[in-house]
């Protein structure tokens, strides 16, 4: 099972669109609620504000492909990369996000990365 969720910092109102996959344990249904999210901006925000987080499950999907389609849809619907009240640095595609800096909505290509390092 793949869960698409919105996490919300109750102190500031900042939100984070994220995904997680269920663990094969007896408390599968609780895992989306105990998972706090892993985005750099989100994690730093929560550390700074030491806030309570609430979770809203947007959808539960059987395949990563379904999750990816829904994640991209909601990313665009809420404009999670550019809107100030969202902590996402990139669209939620179910792939774990991009690695590195300068991710704000930019689509990186291998050859662009190669040119930048020359």
What can you tell me about this protein's structure?
- With 118 residues, the protein is α+β, with helices and mostly antiparallel strands.
- Helices cover 31% and strands 20% of the residues.
- It is built from four helices and three strands.
- A three-stranded antiparallel beta sheet has the order 2-1-3.
- The model is unreliable at 105-118 (pLDDT under 50).
Give the SSE map:
Layout: E1 2-9, E2 15-21, H1 31-34, H2 40-49, E3 53-61, H3 64-78, H4 110-116
Antiparallel strand pairs: 1-2, 1-3
Q: What is the total tally of β strands?
A: 3
Helix content: 25-40%
Mean pLDDT across residues: 81
* Inertia-based shape: globular
Estimate what percentage of residues fall within beta strands. 15-25%
Distance between the termini: 42 Å
H and E order = EEHHEHH
Main sheet characteristics: 3 strands, antiparallel
Radius of gyration: 15 Å
């Amino acid at each position: 099972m793949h869960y698409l969720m919105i996490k919300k910092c109750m102190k500031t109102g900042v939100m984070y669109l994220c995904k997680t996959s269920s663990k094969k344990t007896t408390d599968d249904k609780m895992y989306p609620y105990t998972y706090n999210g892993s985005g750099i901006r989100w994690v730093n925000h929560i550390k700074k504000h030491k806030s309570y987080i609430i979770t809203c499950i947007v959808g539960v999907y059987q395949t990563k492909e379904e999750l990816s389609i829904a994640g991209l849809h909601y990313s665009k619907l809420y404009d999670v990369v550019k809107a100030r009240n969202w902590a996402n640095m990139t669209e939620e595609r179910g792939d774990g996000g991009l690695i590195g800096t300068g991710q704000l909505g930019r689509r990186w290509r291998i050859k662009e990365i190669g040119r930048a390092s020359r």
